[in-house]
Every structure is written in C-alpha cells, then in structure tokens.
Amino acid sequence: MSRPRPNDADPIVREVRVAAPPHEVFAYFTDPARMVAWKAVAAWLEPVPGGLFRIDVNGRRVARGEFLEIDPPRRVVFSWGWEDGEFPPGSTRVEITLSEVAGGTLVRLVHSGLPAPHRAGNAAGWDHYLERLRLAAGGADPGPDPWG
To answer: Which end of the chain is more exposed for a tag (fewer CB within 10 A), N or C?
Structure first.
C-alpha cells in the first residue's frame, strides 16, 4: 500500500508538553530574549496583529513574517518564510495553541502552506526546536544550538 505524497495542503502538526504554565510558555513566542533562549541568535518581535516577526535562527538563516493573531496566553499565529528565498517571507502560516494540562502546558504547532519539497526539512526543524522550547520554557538550559 502506498502512502499519499504530501502536498501543499498538508500541514506539519507537532505537540510537546512543557513543564510550565501557559502564560510562561506564551512569552517564548512573543518576547525576543525568550525566543533567543530556544530558537534564534537574534529576534525582532512586535507581538500585535500586523507586527513584525523576524528571527535570525543561526546567523545564516533569517525567518520573517508578521503576527496575525495574539490571544494571550492561549494562541499565537504568525506568517513565516525565509529571507534567503527557500520560500518567501510571510508565505506560510504557523499557529501555536497553548492548553493547560496537568503539570504544565501542551503546545500544539500547525505549520501550513509549506511547499511539498520543503515539508520534511521544516518538520525536522520544528522537531529540533520544539525540544529546545520544552527545555527552556521548563526551566532547563537547552545549551548551545548544535545547528547554530
């Protein structure tokens, strides 16, 4: 039996549990210093609808978009793309939903609109960085980013 090939309509969906309440985890998506703790070497974030979302992930790759929705501490939605042209800034959508669960927060990420050829690489990236988020927001030091 063959698996269907991913297409542009297939989102990346990931979930991770973080040992911190939603209001603390929320800040890791909206505060530049906290974004740097797990995902970037520099961040320029204006967490209001229409505000800038720009992060320098590793000194070589810069993601840019804009905040589309902000609902503290439950939801953050931003557009996403790469300044290097892999797919254009703002051309995809990342939805973060934070739900309180026993012992902390369930973080659910849905990244939609990705061109099929870029899904696998971006899925691996989210797997890598959500683990770093789990550590940082849970109070641990994720250490230097080996992808940096």
So the answer is: N
